[in-house]
Every structure is written in structure tokens, then in C-alpha cells.
Amino acid sequence: MISNKARLDAILSTLVTVHPHETSALLHSSSCFFFILSAYFVVLPLRDEGAISLGLSKLPGLFLGSLGLTLLAAPLSTLIFSLPNLSKSKVLCFVPRSVLLSMAFFLFSKFVDQIKGG
Q: Which UniProt keywords apply (predicted)?
């Protein structure tokens, strides 16, 4: 009977050229890419709706802000994933929590702006 790891290695090697010791890294990086891209497409309509509600004059600032945050988050997450003393499972728990914190900060700042404006 073939073990699950050997079966997974056989399936993956039919799709891409991968050595057995690279399977874990391939799955971690693929899942990380999938979840980050999924989160982006979940947040995209919220950002667009926020842009519509704030008006066209604030639209360039919102897009520059989201670009700046992306340019800051990508190297930071790469640095965190490359740290040798952190396990990948701990880091994969950290990434969604940091996204959650940034969304909570965004909501808090929006409520503060509403209180100041009205």
C-alpha cells in the first residue's frame, strides 16, 4: 500500500517537476498565494464601495494607499516566512490575523471620520 505522502508526491510530479523534499514548500507557497489572492478579491468590492461612498475626489488616495500597503506587506510577509525560527504553521496563522487587524483598523478609522464629519 502506498502512503499518502508518496501518493501526493506522485500526483504533484505529474503536474509539475517537484522533488519529494520540495512538496511541503510547494503546498505551503501555493496555499499562501491562494489565500492572499482570495482575500484580495474579497476586499476589492469593499474598497470600491468605500471609494464610491467617499466620492471621486478621494479615489486616487485610496488607490495609492492600497498600492502602498501592498508594497509594504509583500516584502514584510516574505521576511516573516523566511525567518528560520518560526514554523510555517505559526506564520500561516499570523497572516490572516494581521489582515484582520488591518481591516479592523480601517473600520475604526472610518467610524472616527464619520464622527468627526457628522
A: Membrane, Transmembrane, Transmembrane helix
